[in-house]
Structures are given as structure tokens and as C-alpha cells.
Predict the 3D structure of the following.
Amino acid sequence: MHFAAFRIIGQAALPDTRTRMLFDVFYLCRSHGSSSSSAFLPARDHQMSDWHQSEDHAERAERLLANGRGPEAEQEIRRAIEIDPVRGEWHAALSMVLDSMGRLEEALASMRQAALLLPEDDRTTASCAELSLRLDRPADAAEHARRAIESTDAEERVHAILIAALHRLERHEDAEIAYYEAQQRFEEMPCCLVAMGDLKAETEAYDQASWCYREAMRQAPSMPQLRSRIAAILAATGRPERALQLHLAELREHPASIETLLACGRLLVSMDRQPEAVDRFRRVLEIEPANFPAHWELGLAALALHRFDEARVEFEIARRLDPEMPLARRRLAEALLGCGEPELARVQLDEAADRLRDEESFEEMFNLASLLLEVGSTSKALPLFEQLAEKQPEDLEILRRLAVCRYRLGDADGGVAISRRVLRRAPDCIRSMHNLSVAAMEDDRIVSAFLWTKRGLTVTPSDPGLRRLRSRILTRLAWNWTLGLPTMVRGLLSAGLTRIRSIRRPGQG
């Protein structure tokens, strides 16, 4: 959408020049108490001068924006608005400038103002719907889209925005109805086909999704991202090589497509081709240095390749770009652990635990709890493992780690109870036997500790942990025997002497 288009819209929608001149005359008559015809010429000249000035500012803004000079373009279009604040197309143009600089909230506010000033034009309302959708406000997007669709001149893409908004609201039946309504108005509707394909892909109706994308490609062969969407379907149905070919074909036509580069990189990661994936992610950063997904994916790839220093750098950048990203601190902590910085990792993990969300996935909560246990933050790990054990009471790995938390926090009885519970389900669990042996040693039950160690070595004779533990137990037994022998001898002698004395006394008497 260009500035010129908005000027045409505005000129059609706003009152004509004669009406505005009459307003100026009315104002001058009230100000000066005169209806003299001499008031007409200055008013008209002044109005035309302002109109041309605002046009000049808008044209300069358009040129500046085309040259990538967004801040200067913003200044120019704001000057145009100061001169003519009721010109709806200027507010729409400001929205475009703000959008180009990533200031979507302000862009939406300006476009809403344009829609108020241009009530007969559906394009500003459609733009409000699109911006609302990009801001992840599907309810607002659906409302704006329905309002725009009421116009007989509404474009097909507005129907697609409505379908996408209803999809995000999980109103799938309403989205399908909106799709069928669009079918009644348009012979070709590639945008709606893509929106419906996205819905079907999410619900894993892959055949229907593939048909939608292929039909959209037939109707609009030059539409970007279609091959990438089909590639995602192929990857999801177990055909990654064919999916990769489609991604590469898309990149040949659109080599600077960030979405395709990211999708291609992720597919290569899933195919265990990390070095090639890294090349795609680095290409994204050449195009857009502050791209959060690219830094994130590079960090994950570096972690997988055990390049912990690189992963640390990428995750630190990602955390700065999106401080509210819940997983950033956890992945950074993993990188820090790989770099041999457990204390720094603990700081990140403690903060991540404090920011834990209610809707946290089971896998991520388990990962966080395990990392907390690894860095010694046992008090924060314990409640997480307790929550996990409530959700999965038969998961032996969770129970083992919960037992470790109890042991470390001094709750030996709780740890022993959980370890015995694990052994009832997995009689050959070496870790539980090891923990029970250690707990018995700490409670000075040396014989019990020896028996648990012996049982574990019967299952796995070469286990190094149990062998070391057996050596400690035998040393402890020998030491106890060495220290206890003199005491035992003294006790025996004392008992013997007492017995002898008791025998002699009756004889003497």
C-alpha cells in the first residue's frame, strides 16, 4: 500500500474544497464580525498553501521511506499531519512508516485514526485487522475484518485475515464458515486457501492442508512461502528430503526470505545436519542482525555440537532481545555448565524457577528441575519434582531424582521410602540401591549398607560407584573393628574379674 493510494482514498472521502472554504469563511466571519467578500481570497489562498505544504511533506516522507530512512520519513509525515490533522491518508501513511520500523502498537493506533477519518474506505479497517493479527490480538482482528468485509469492495485478503483470526481463537467451525463465505464472493482466493491450509495443518489434516496449499500455488504461482508450507507438510509426514528440495526451490526464487531460511535450517537440524543449518541461520543474521529466532536456533545448534562458548554468546544475545522468553535462561544455563561456570548457571536457573509459568510443559519442567539439582539448588528443585511426581506417579526417573532431593535436604526417611518404592517397581535399579546404602552408612547401619552394596554388585559387578562404596564400607568395618577390639577385650576382662570375685566371696564366707 503506497502513500499515493492513500491520497486518492482521502480525497474521495473527505469533504471537497468548496465545503472546506465555506468553513473557513464561516470562521472568519465569526472572528471579524464581517461578511465582506474580501475574506474569501485570503482564506482560499491560505488553505491551498497548507494543502500543498502537507502534500510536499508527504511526498518527501514517501521518498525517505523508499530509501530506508524511516525516522526522517516519520518526521515529515508528522509535519503533514500537523498542517492537516483531519487528512486520513496522512495517518495511514504514518502507520506504514511506524510499521516499517517495527513499532506495531503505534502503527495500529495511527491506522485506527485513519479508519475513523476515512469511514467509507474498507482498506484502513482491513489494515487494522492485519496489524491486530500481527500483534496477536485475534479478537480485535476478527472484529475489524468483519467490519471491512461488509463493504462490497473488500479484498479477498480481508477474508483470509478473518479465517486466520478465528483459527487463533480456536473457533475452527467459524473459520470454515468464513472460508465458505469467501468462496461465494471470489472465483480465486489464494490467501483464503493458505489460511485454511494453516488451520488444517495444525489439526494434522495433512491431505486437506496440502490440497489447499497446492491450489493456492495454482491460483497464485508467485505467492511467497507456499513451497515452504508444503515442505512443512512433507516433513511432518516423514518425507524430509522432499521437503528440503522444496525449501531450496523457494530460496532460489526468494533468497532473502527469512521465514524460509529459518524453516530450512530447522529441517536440517531435524535431519542431523547441523553445520548446514548453521549456514542458513547465519544468512538470516546477515539480512536481519537482531533476528531473535536465528540467534536462538544458532544457540541450540551450538549446544547440540557441544560448542558451549558459541552457545553462550547466542543465548545471551537472545535473552537481551527478548528478556521475557521463558526458556532463554535455561538454555543459557546449559551453555554455562558446558563452559564450566556452575555458579553463573545457578543464578540463571534460580531466576528461571522464580519465573516459572503455570502452563509449563512437563518436559521443560523436568529439564529445569534436573538442571537445578545439577547445580546444587536442591531446595528449588524439590517442589518441581514433587509436582512432576503428582502428574506422573509411576515415572521412575522422577522418583529417583525426588529421592535425591530428599536425601540432600536431610530427609533421609523420605528418601529411603521413595528409593524402596522405586525398587518395588524396578528391582534392579542400581541408583536406588546405591542411595539406600549411603543412607544406611550415614545412619551407622554398616551391615545394612554392606548388604545393599552387595545386592547392587550382584546385578552389576563392574559398577564403579558401588565398588567404591564397598571399599568405603569395608574400610569402615575394619576401622570400627580396630577401634572396638580394645574396648571389647577390656569388657571381657572386666566381666571375667567380676565373675571370679563373685565366686571367691562365697568361699571366703
